[in-house]
Specification:
5 strands; 35% helix
Length: 97
């Protein structure tokens, strides 16, 4: 699947819920860097559960990590993997983040 740039929260939540086990989400931070998360990452699920504004930051979703990286690089940036979900595996449990 080609990376999808989410246009609204409904699209984002639907994609995320469909790809909890096989997806990747890239989030563009205020600094301009893109951070990689798994869909079940606490930093992804917590704002959804709290009802926060989900479109404050640009987001891409993809089931293909290499294609996702290529899209981010085409925008002149890179994808960082510093989140705990990338270092320690997929988990929503806050205690493991």
């Amino acid at each position: 699947m080609e990376p999808v740039r989410f246009r609204n929260a409904t699209e984002y939540i639907a994609w995320r819920n469909t790809h909890l086990d096989d997806g990747y989400i890239a989030v563009k931070e205020k600094s301009g860097k893109w951070n990689l998360h798994s869909p079940d990452c606490w930093f992804i699920s917590n704002p959804i559960e709290k009802g926060e504004n989900l479109m404050s930051y640009a987001k891409y979703g993809s089931t293909n990590l290499e294609r996702l990286k290529a899209v981010i690089e085409a925008e002149g940036s890179s994808l960082t993997t510093g989140c705990y979900c990338q270092q320690y595996g997929r988990t929503r449990r806050r205690g493991r983040h």
